[in-house]
Amino acid sequence: MPKDPFNAYRNAGEPDVTVAPSDPILSNMSSGTPSKIMEGRSLAKRLLAEAAAEVNAMQSKRGVTPTLATVLVGDDLASHTYVKMKRKRCEQVGMNSVAIELPRDTSTQQVLDEIRRLADDESVHGILVQHPVPRPIDRRAVFEAIPIEKDVDGVTSATLGRTILGMPAFASCTPAGIMRLLAEYKVELDGAHAVVVGRSPILGRPMASMLINAHATVTLCHSRTRNLPDIVRHADVLIVAVGKPRFAQGDWIKPGAVVIDCGYNVGTIGDVDFDAVIERASLVTPVPGGVGPMTIATLIRQTTDAAALQLGTDC
Hints:
Elements: H1 41-62, E1 67-73, H2 77-93, E2 96-102, H3 108-120, E3 126-129, H4 139-144, H5 157-165, H6 173-184, E4 193-197, H7 204-213, E5 217-221, H8 228-232, E6 237-240, E7 258-261, H9 274-277, E8 283-284, H10 291-311
Parallel strand pairs: 1-2, 1-3, 4-5, 4-6, 6-7, 7-8
Helix pairs in contact: 1-10, 2-10, 5-7, 6-7, 6-10
């Protein structure tokens, strides 16, 4: 790989913006109007179609099939479900997937050995370590073992650094998917006040950086933020990623705000009180069908881009 493997990287963070998609699936919801629903299924479907076309081109021109390796440690049921969904999407676009499943008592060194083996394997173009990684495994050490050119899930410090600086990178999939969704719905970020609730290194922090790079004024909040509802009430754009069902209340929402719900809790419940929030918001993502489809589609799209980058082709 060249010194900067992203010199020739086509920035996947700037989609061809079209009119907001219709929502036949959610149009009969009992609360709110369909025009307020910011659904991600239609855009995700287009991203997957783009990925399938790129896979076909690489197979035809280079005889190579983009390959995503997933590393799963432990027996967490939700993690197994997520990995299965990602492998299914790989299959749908014609990509290969390699599943590495390790027992819960696997040591940090054993996980590192697997990742380094995948890093050296030229037939593997993207590496994803399913999180959460069970303790006492050193999660950060595991993430840092992924080469930046194969970090299609955007978890390394190198990727986060490039994201903060606005440099090309395979950014964290959920915030990257949200940025595409905001562009799809023509949400004006230049000069807007965006509030991000949640500061994780794979969601809240890169999300804040992407919004800043889009010229929004950003407030990053977390569990120790004082007077959180009062801060949220000033948000033109609100991103909620706290992992608590119906955490953000309807009376927190500034009339006309755009609300992005990143949560997926037991019972298929998001992090915002959807029924109350939709009464005040101009746009709000549903759960399911909002952010989730965009996250997986972004992962698949970034894996095909990673393959093209490693092959040195524009396929």
